[in-house]
Amino acid sequence: MHKSRIVLGCMALVLTLALLIPLVGCGGGGGTSTTATPTGTTTGATITPTKTPTATKTPTATKTPTSTSSSGNTLADIYGKSGYKGDIKSDMVITSSGAPSETPQQITQTVSIKGWASPNNWKWRMDIPASVAGSAQIMILDYSAGKTYTWYPDQNIACSTSISGSTSNLAQDVNTIVPTYLGTETIDGKLCDVYQYTAEGINTKEWVWKDKSFPIKEEITSSYGTSTLEYKNIVFAPLSDSLFTVPSSVTMQAYPCYPMPSIPSYP
What we know:
It contains four helices and 13 strands. By secondary structure, it is mainly beta. It has a single domain (2-253), classed as Clam (outer membrane lipoprotein receptor (LolB), chain A). A hairpin with a 4-residue loop joins strand 10 (202-209) and strand 11 (214-222). The termini are close together.
């Protein structure tokens, strides 16, 4: 049970956000308008490349092309188009259509990113609520240091491991993946470029907000099913370095830092 919950929670990160990025899509929390016919997912709008979209109210939104082609740019190139290199904080809403029955179908967690558009120096923080994994967790990824920290604030313990030891390195992914460009779509009044790519057996479609070059919606399909990641309440503003540091008062343990006495059923 715990492992399936962690997979869903961490999908947010492997923002390709998921491998993540992640990361990504376009909207900020409101209604959704789209230039393509929705396919029936529970959140956000999707596009169907093989169908001709109906006319939209947004004159700058383009129709879905009948053929696709390589974008010619890596994800890092795409994320850096706007020139914004500052920090970002948002709510991440993950909706899963294929997760195990014991896993919540929709979860919301807070994501903080230090140094957007600088993947090699990225710092990510994900605040995962207790409803997802049985105990509140904070995951911190420090790409400049090559470390991942898993922190259980209620237990006052944490552990760390090397990012290079993981099956997917987000910073490496964004610097090497060249996605296929599918067209444009307007979501919540924001014009997005839509891209698709497959990495490590995971197919990801991203909606990247053109004005900010920030992917605020993703559809991720893997052997676990399909999950939709949407970034809401996005704030582009400086974040304190302390958000991305485990306090010295927290007890560091060898990885993995479980089982924990207060959660007897923890696998």
